[in-house]
Amino acid sequence: MLLQVLMFLCFIFTLIYILKKRNYWRSRGITEVEGSLWKFTFGDRSLPEYYKEIYDKYEDEQIGVYLGSIPSLMLKNLDDIQAVMAGDFQSFYKRGLTVNKSDILGDNILFIDEYPRWKLLRTKLTPVFTSLRLKTMFLSIEKCAKDFVDLIESDETLMKKPFDMLYTFTAASIGAAVFGIDIGGKEAMESPFVIMAWKALTPSFSTNLKFLTSNAFPWLYKTLQLRFFSEHEEFFIGAVKSVFEARRKAEKRNDFIDLCLELQKNGTMKDPTTEYELEPTDEVLAAQAFFFFIAGADTTANALHFSLLELAGHPTILAKVHDNIDEVFKDGKTAISYEDMDKLQYLDMVVNEAMRKYPPIGQLQRICTRNTELPSNKLKIEKDTGIVIPIYAIHRDEKLFPNPEVCDPERFSPQNVQKMHNYSFMAFGGGNRICIGMRFARLQLKACLAWLLRKYTLEEKVYRPERFERSSFSLRDTNATYKLIRRNNN
């Protein structure tokens, strides 16, 4: 009943607002397209795909759209995008996702739009992913990757649903490396953490409607006290509190939990530049842990999944990947090290190309926080205007990537990367709000693929998706499959 009421209210208020704001962009000499968010909410594909249709249809570098009722601007010009995400960040730091104070798990650095709060938490959490901590955490990542392959060997029918299996690995490795929670082996399949992470980000009509309301009518979202993750609060906060309690009596592991305990020991967190203060309560830190868990598990699983789909369709590229991995495992090595990750250069190029074709995050949005202008043509952007950055469309732009439908890892050779604009490839976002766990995710990706493709190859099968799942931000095709075949050298 609540969803039906919400649908009705959204429709009525959007209609009223659009009629009132109609021609907002046309009156400024900008091409205007209406209804993209509504098409997505009631459509059959992802929002990044709808944005790509608009991107491809019009030659303009700036296209007027609406985030529900909010006049917004889709950007193509990479210098404009750089200004929004970095150069003029103070004017565009908001993501535009409303979070109610009662949504405890939604109070994380991915969703927070309150600048002083976001800045303080981002600063305090960044040390989780220093080189020293990553090197320590890699031991757990590598063990999880090896356990993952052992699990497949013990029951190869598990790969009938490959995305589910990959999700198990990413959730298990985050749990082990970042939080010190051992959920490896067969127990990982039934882990409540894996099940929770899956449920939290699986696209549904309910979550898409909440996304629409949060974007288009923040006042309505707040009035109705809607929450994205309410069903997971009791379990996850309770679990994190239990981990905190156990780790206070245990040996330090130099991971996220240790950092949280250090923050709590030091008392009130304070930003000397903004003077903003925040208590590091269990609930505040649990929200950050929740963000690492669900965002990292889903996006990395998607990147692994699409990498394997592309390799299955390109045997020549797959052979080169095998050569790269075999070189690292030569001389009878039974483990790989943190330093070995730098030797998997060709594998890294393949992963980048897969994330170009199928970016884990297919679109980003921002809300203007003060009147400003774009650098390319001095177009004035008013406060509360939305910005859409269509990553999926940019990654498939033939002006930036010739023959964009072709899988070509050489695009990401060291010499070619140097020629790229910084914002032509945004697999992990960009600018000041770039993915905080980017380096950790790359270690997960390469360790998993190295162990998996050391023992298995892929049956040739070309991947040609008609459309992706109805996600508001990502590209997902969880039902796509490929067949693993044991290699003769093992």
UniProtKB/TrEMBL annotation:
Coiled-coil intervals: none
Transmembrane regions: none
Gene Ontology CC entries for this record: endoplasmic reticulum membrane
Enzyme Commission number(s): 1.14.14.1
Enzyme class: oxidoreductase
Keyword Metal-binding belongs to the record: yes
Alphabetical list of PANTHER family matching this protein: CYTOCHROME P450, CYTOCHROME P450 28A5-RELATED
Function: May be involved in the metabolism of insect hormones and in the breakdown of synthetic insecticides.
Protein name, as recorded: unspecific monooxygenase
